[in-house]
């Protein structure tokens, strides 16, 4: 049909599903690429050079590093530059309390340096770096600006700057997760997985990922043959995408070498692989072991840190992800938002154990979550797992 007036064109492009959130997606993917490179550098320094700064303990005893604060500052700064600080609302994991203590000056300067080093290379991805290095106050401001508490209306970003910090400090898997939520629904998800091995066999924690990592030479560890990828999806597009992580590639042009990804076609539990957290404290291994046995799962569980598990399902490298935390634990939205939409658009199913969608509209926590989280490559596997949970729940100690 002929486009007659400029008004007509404007209305059409606003309702065109391909155009919706186009800028948000591009900026978010670029920000996550920048964050991945930042994390790779800090992890390398921490693990292999021994100078990536301290690993601090938070109030709940979970670790936090220079990378967590630096990614939060960097992503917050990039989003604010792109959309205007007044238009950007972010729910994120870190705050500046620990950084503002009088004995934290070395840590703080290390964060400021890491942020500025990272932003100085952002032009690789077409992001304009700041004209002069950010001052300490600007870095603190970028971190503390991420103080949204989410909710049912409006638009906010959800950021886990380093998900799976325990994996990060152990030289293993971790993820950078950024999602956009609008009126309580996740509309965009971007997941950076800097250590995701292109050889999926290496994903398994029990294979000693760190030893393998140390054997990969720099040149063999990039691009499609090595490790590291960024996954993304837009709600309703029925497509999910993966890009290789590249280091300092000046030819990077959005949507640089993106490939579509799909969940696995396996629906027979005998052939399926399930993944779960490495830490027993985060999800009951004994409950999932019984469950796996009852549905005929034979493969060893793939125990992986962080939202890389969501990536594994979306890429078709595993078929089932289960998380059953101890009673009373409240799941946070930043640990799931990006992964859920990516799996769904790659063709998979994600619900709580009662079959209800995860609810991102109730603030920082996934309120009303029924027992645990089940993500599967297909609905038939998903049904089987839900039935098995019902059958064994009452006899479990969860
Ligand atoms: N007791 C607990 N039960 C369930 N999840 C927990 C937990 N303690 C921490 N977590 C969450 O589990 C995430 C790590 O996931 P996984 O166990 O799959 O690797 C942590 O993210 P962070 O590392 O970003 O803090 C944290 O939010
Ligand atoms: Mg997390």
From TrEMBL:
Pfam families: Inositol_P
Superkingdom, taxonomy of origin: Eukaryota
Signal peptide from the UniProt entry: none
Alphabetically ordered keywords of this record: Hydrolase, Magnesium, Metal-binding
Catalysis: reaction(s): adenosine 3',5'-bisphosphate + H2O = AMP + phosphate; 3'-phosphoadenylyl sulfate + H2O = adenosine 5'-phosphosulfate + phosphate
Cofactor entry: Mg(2+)
Enzyme Commission code(s) on record: 3.1.3.7
Annotated Mg(2+) 1 binding sites: 160, 163, 335
InterPro entries registered for this protein in UniProt: DPNP, Inositol_monoP_metal-BS, Inositol_monoP_superfamily, Inositol_monophosphatase-like, Inositol_monophosphatase_CS
Residue sites binding Mg(2+) 2 per the record: 93
Keyword NAD: no
UniProt keyword annotation of Hydrolase present: yes
Any GO BP: inositol phosphate metabolic process
One example GO MF annotation: metal ion binding
PANTHER family (UniProt xref): 3'(2'),5'-BISPHOSPHATE NUCLEOTIDASE, PHOSPHATASE
Function summary: Converts adenosine 3'-phosphate 5'-phosphosulfate (PAPS) to adenosine 5'-phosphosulfate (APS) and 3'(2')-phosphoadenosine 5'-phosphate (PAP) to AMP.
Family: Belongs to the inositol monophosphatase superfamily.
Descriptive protein name: 3'(2'),5'-bisphosphate nucleotidase
Organism: Centaurea solstitialis
Source organism phylogeny: Eukaryota, Viridiplantae, Streptophyta, Embryophyta, Tracheophyta
